[in-house]
Amino acid sequence: MRRSGRFVIQADRARNDLAPPGTSTESGAHVEKINTPLMLIEGEVDYRTPPVSGGEMMFRALKSLKKPVVMVMFPAESHELSRSGKPSHRIERLQHMVRWFDKYLKGEKVEIYDVR
Do 16 and 4 meet the contact criterion of CB atoms below 8 Å apart? Predict the structure, then answer.
């Protein structure tokens, strides 16, 4: 364990060391309060945010609450997708982000994310 600013680094995971007493720092702790459409972009071999405690858990929780959520999973990519991922995956990642914003900020019809 080592301290780095406000965070305590343990086993390649960070948690907010300054969370108020009695509050949870788990990713699904307040999922019912989320109303903003959410796109989760994941690397298939991302060991920093494993499925059990990362994006997949959040995706399943939001989906079960019928919240607007989509998860884009990139095969053979790690946590470094945006910086050192396969160039075609990095481009596709940005295209997904633009289409998501087009759908929810501009109100454009983007059917690819309408899966129920």
Answer: no
**In sequence order, what E strands does the chain have?**
2-4, 7-10, 13-16, 38-43, 69-74
Average pLDDT of every residue of the chain: 79
Is the predicted pLDDT of residue 2 greater than 50, yes or no?
A: no
| CA within 13 Å, CB half, 45 | 5
The answer to whether 83 and 68 are in contact (CB under 8 A) is no
SS3 62: helix
**Residue 24: CB atoms within 10 Å:** 9
Indicate left, alpha or beta for 48 from its phi (over 0: left) and psi (-120 to 50: alpha): alpha
